[in-house]
Design a protein that fits this description.
The chain has eight helices and 15 strands. By secondary structure, it is of the alpha+beta class. Bound molecules: ligand MTE.
């Protein structure tokens, strides 16, 4: 496990998968113990998680038509892996923490406020978002900056469906996603790993690209809390941290917005963060990846594809030096 303490006092627990996952995970649990700090607070976490599990309802089905234009043919990641090996730092930095603790988050009622440089600002609840456009199932690859990837059937629709409803003004050059910060439910925010709430952002043309998906479900069900319930964004050609979970605010802005990982370590996590096997992370290579669910000690890594294989976005970046704008 590689941890780097930044001058601003923020820990950077992202690590590459240079070691087998089992070893990597046992190191992560060591970090969790540091995060927890004491046996007393560890048992508080246990209690919180037991209460949360007792309260979690059965997953709700979400019917959607498959959009075959957006289906990668790679084998899908088993549901079990996709819902137990997560990054959702508001619930802790260990991969197993979100599945354990995120059910404490209350995802209904929930509203998303859409504001800033738009002619029609609005606040929508989850039922309105579920009805805003026909729900589609799309099977996307998601590549984490740490060097692993998954293939998941998401349910939702293009974010552009929502964008056209609010009518952005000509000043709307970027979109910022602000996510939930519930200090009672989110045990991970007791530690200043990032500046909370977690924020992300896209250029307006990236946000409007049909691949960018406002996501309300996966595997035919509403999103599990650990995967970003009740609503998140999926941007499949960018590293996974761009795909913000549990969104409460979408702001249309003139200038490039601040984003959580870019603010924490601008030299390591660029605003664009397009998947790019030619631009290494300063601490590890991005040339290949491990597909979660296919792990084995001798399993060969897969080569990482430019834009995660989504070549149709290349024109968004024509003329840009993607080493500079990483
Ligand atoms: N969103 C929030 N609010 N908090 C987070 O810590 N982690 C990001 C992203 N969205 C994160 C987040 C990272 S690093 C990744 S790789 C993906 O969520 C993981 O999504 P998954 O757990 O559904 O695979």
């Amino acid at each position: 496990m590689l941890i780097k303490r930044q001058p601003n006092g923020v820990d950077l627990p992202f690590a590459s998968e240079i070691t087998p996952r089992e070893i990597f995970e046992s190191r992560r649990s060591f970090i969790q113990k540091i995060a927890v700090g004491s046996i007393a607070s560890a048992s508080l976490l246990e209690m919180a998680s037991r209460e949360a599990f007792a309260a979690s309802p059965a997953p709700q089905k979400l019917a959607a038509r498959q959009n075959t234009s957006y289906v990668v043919l790679d084998k899908q990641t088993p549901y079990e892996d996709a819902t137990t090996y997560n990054n959702y730092y508001e619930f802790g930095t260990d991969k197993s923490n979100p599945a354990r603790y995120a059910s404490a988050l209350k995802t209904r009622p929930w509203t998303v406020s859409i504001e800033g440089e738009v002619k029609k600002p609005m606040t929508l609840d989850i039922d309105s978002l579920l009805k805003l456009a026909p729900l589609e199932e799309r099977v996307y690859r998601l590549r984490c900056v740490e060097g692993w990837s998954m293939v998941i059937p998401w349910v939702g629709y293009s974010l552009s469906e929502l964008i056209k409803k609010v009518e952005p003004t000509s000043n709307a050059k970027y979109v910022q996603f602000v996510t939930e910060l519930d200090r009672d439910a989110m045990i991970g925010v007791r530690r200043r790993v990032l500046d909370w709430p977690y924020t992300e952002g896209l250029r307006i043309d990236e946000a409007n690209h049909p691949l960018t998906m406002l996501t309300l479900g996966m595997y035919g069900e509403v999103l599990p809390n650990q995967n970003g319930a009740p609503v998140r964004i999926i941007v499949p050609w960018k590293y996974g941290f761009k795909s913000a979970k549990s969104i409460v605010k979408i702001r249309f802005v003139k200038d490039q917005p601040s984003t959580a990982w870019n603010s924490a370590a601008p030299n390591e996590y660029g605003f664009y963060s397009n998947v790019n096997p030619q631009v290494n992370h300063p601490r590890w290579s991005q040339a290949s990846e491990r597909r979660i669910g296919e792990d084995g000690f001798f399993t060969k890594k897969r080569p990482t594809l430019m834009f995660n294989g989504y070549d149709q976005v290349a024109s968004l970046y024509s003329g840009m030096d993607l080493k500079k704008y990483f």
